[in-house]
Amino acid sequence: MPSVINTQTIGASDLCIVMNNSQFGRAHGYGDTWNSLRIALLFSAGPDNVQSITGNVFRVGLCNGTVNMPGDVTTNNSYGVNFFGTWARGTYGWNMSNSAFRRVGSTETLSATNISPRLSFQGVSRYPLFIDIVKGSPNYTFNFWYHSGNGTADMTPASFFGYLNIPGTYLSYTDTTYGAPTGTSLAIDTATNGILDTVYCGWSATTWSLWISYIAVVRLS
After folding, report:
1. Could you give the CA distance from residue 132 to residue 79 in angstroms, rounded to a whole number?
2. pTM, rounded to two decimals
3. How far apart are alpha carbons 64 and 13 in whole angstroms?
4. Which residue of 88, 144, 191, 206 has the lowest C-beta tally within 10 Å?
């Protein structure tokens, strides 16, 4: 089903992309002329009355065009972060497994990394997720900036946009961590399967929704 636009009030009202068993993609405008590309989300997820869910998949990354994206039966080309497995409600957010993913055609390959990011509760606070995808020849990798602590403070849009162009080694915000997890390396063949010219988000849950307040893409190099 398609994503919809709805209003969420945390601090102040903002219009959100509300995802429920849906996906979306938009051309990021840089084509293939980048070496490091930052995908930044300000978002929250799920109702307060669900304790756990199994089998949900959340993908964030890049793909080739908006036809045949990672949530479709076949995919042109894609790389990014895959959140999956058993989602358990903690005190301050959802915990789950995660890895790098590559999907081409109907074949999906997952890396062997897990650094335990959290997704925040809808209606309580908005957390940032920055993913810096680094192009390689042929192996692509990513770095994370994600919610990792025990705070519930809401990140305001002003703070979110203020961090967009700051290099990862200088990123600092309460209850967040920036790191370069090992094991995110996957080979990407753009000559055969298409360049990664589109920012992508996919959310498979039907029982609760992902609320994206803001999404931005920045070419770091």
Report:
1. 12
2. 0.89
3. 33
4. 191
Q: How is residue 182 written in tokens?
A: 């090992």
Instruction: Indicate the fold that domain 4-219 takes in CATH.
Output: Jelly Rolls (2.60.120)
Exposure of 41 in the CB half-sphere (CA atoms within 13 A): 26
Cα–Cα distance measured from residue 49 to residue 69, given in angstroms and rounded to the nearest whole number: 31
pLDDT per position in the chain (221 positions), as tens? 445 545 455 555 566 778 888 998 999 999 999 999 999 998 887 766 677 778 888 999 999 999 999 999 999 999 999 988 888 877 777 788 889 999 999 999 999 767 666 777 666 778 889 999 999 999 999 998 887 777 767 788 889 999 999 988 888 888 788 888 888 999 999 999 999 999 999 998 887 788 888 899 999 99
**Pairwise CA distance, residues 77 & 63, whole Å:** 5
DSSP letter assigned to residue 136: -
Cα 60 to Cα 78: distance, rounded to the nearest angstrom: 10
- Amino acid identity, residue 121? F
| The 3-state secondary structure of 72-105, one letter per residue | CCCECCEEEEEEEEEEEECCCCEEEEEEEEEEEE
Containing 151, the helix (H) or strand (E) segment is none
DSSP 177: E
Domain residue limits, the chain: 4-219
Q: Which amino acid is at 42?
A: L
